[in-house]
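In response to the reviewer comment on reproducibility (Comment 2.3), we provide here a single inverse folding case reported in full, input and output, so that an independent group could reproduce the run without further information from us. The structure tokens appear first.
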């Protein structure tokens, strides 16, 4: 079976980027973002939502692991983790050993684990299930994303929602408005001797004319923006704390694609870009065979990206209002298959992280013995989390975004 990729999903799902383009979805460049940060800066008290999509159907049972549960061990055999291998969270549950940083966020009470997340009458198709999650509409085949509808209700500025990738995901496509996309290439300025000469032009000089002073300041501002947006330490301070963290592999950029996306998001937040919702992603979770090593590697990449991003955000006024949401389109079957993997399932685990998150378990842990034809039964509807995020992070009425759905999971945020 082909591995699910983000591009393949965008190509085949019924909610396509073509609909977004029809209402004005566009790529933006650094000039657009830096100008917006100057003319309409992000309010330091405004909430910012960062949505991390794990494409392919992440196995929730080997992410939040009931290692001491006999039913888990009997169903998984060689695929199962043993109690001494997991990162203990209490209540007989532990995180995958690749998630040491997120376990640290848990102990800091800045990681919320939402259990048994799904929707009624679940669909085992990647494309239909992901369309349901991205539209926030399990009952009808909606053509707009849930954050796209939020954009429709709150204004027509595409910079309010940004995908840090070349293609706009369906969740940012509204009927009247669509978010923007930014290819993750960083802001690169001249380096070496020429770069030093250009940077020197930004230094203030006595008795210079006002126009010259403004030109010099613009050069200095550009280099400062590059430092922030690229997550780099000042060349004048190579021993800074941030530089040491990067050398130790602990930067928000990490070494993977997701880390690079989140490093860019961190820089945009710190620069004051007025975006309120960001979309980033990591693929490869369709683990029908040889799951254990593949999933642990991917969860290690997730951990290496999310943990330092949250830690970095907690150090700034704007960053303290950032909430990270991590989800996948479904979990996997309880029983392992014959290929040391798992097949498409239903309910899974959702994570929220950040300074405003109320850490701990939320939602009921699904039973491993009371199953629905071999699948976990959903105990938490994902729309209850979406509604809470719209109201408590984005500060908007969730009613028009999730019509007819009123439940909220208010306990997850402060």
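Designed residues, in position order:
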């Amino acid at each position: 079976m082909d591995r699910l990729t983000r591009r393949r999903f965008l190509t085949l799902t019924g909610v396509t980027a073509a609909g977004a383009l029809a209402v004005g979805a566009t790529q933006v460049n650094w000039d657009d973002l830096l100008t917006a940060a100057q003319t309409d800066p992000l309010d330091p008290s405004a909430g910012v939502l960062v949505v991390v999509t794990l494409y392919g159907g992440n196995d929730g049972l080997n992410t939040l692991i009931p290692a001491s549960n006999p039913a888990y061990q009997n169903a998984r055999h060689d695929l199962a983790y043993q109690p001494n291998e997991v990162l203990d969270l209490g209540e007989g549950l532990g995180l995958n050993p690749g998630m040491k940083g997120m376990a640290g966020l848990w102990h800091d009470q800045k990681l919320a684990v939402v259990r048994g997340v799904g929707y009624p009458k679940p669909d085992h198709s990647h494309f239909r299930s992901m369309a349901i999650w991205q539209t926030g509409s399990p009952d009808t085949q909606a053509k707009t994303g849930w954050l796209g509808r939020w954009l429709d209700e709150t204004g027509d500025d595409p910079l309010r929602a940004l995908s840090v990738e070349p293609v706009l995901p369906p969740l940012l496509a509204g009927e009247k408005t669509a978010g923007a996309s930014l290819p993750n290439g960083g802001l690169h300025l001249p380096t070496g001797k020429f770069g030093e000469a250009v940077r020197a032009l930004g230094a203030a000089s006595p008795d210079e004319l006002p126009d010259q002073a403004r030109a010099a300041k613009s050069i200095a501002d550009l280099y400062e923006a590059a430092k922030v947006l690229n997550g780099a330490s000042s060349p004048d301070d190579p021993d800074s704390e941030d530089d040491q963290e990067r050398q130790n592999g602990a930067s928000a950029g990490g070494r993977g694609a997701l880390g690079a996306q989140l490093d860019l998001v961190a820089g945009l937040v710190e620069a004051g870009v007025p975006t309120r919702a960001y979309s980033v992603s990591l693929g490869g979770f369709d683990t029908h065979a040889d799951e254990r090593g593949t999933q642990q590697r991917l969860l290690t990449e997730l951990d290496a990206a999310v943990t330092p991003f949250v830690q970095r955000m907690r150090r700034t006024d704007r960053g303290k209002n950032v909430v990270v949401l991590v989800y996948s389109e479904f979990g996997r079957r309880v029983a392992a298959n014959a290929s040391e993997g798992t097949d498409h399932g239903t309910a899974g685990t959702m994570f929220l992280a950040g300074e405003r998150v109320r850490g701990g378990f939320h939602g009921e842990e699904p039973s491993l013995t009371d199953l629905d034809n071999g699948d976990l039964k959903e105990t938490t509807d994902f729309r209850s989390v979406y509604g809470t995020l719209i109201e408590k992070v984005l500060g908007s009425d969730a009613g028009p975004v999730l019509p007819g759905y009123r439940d909220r999971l208010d306990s997850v945020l402060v």
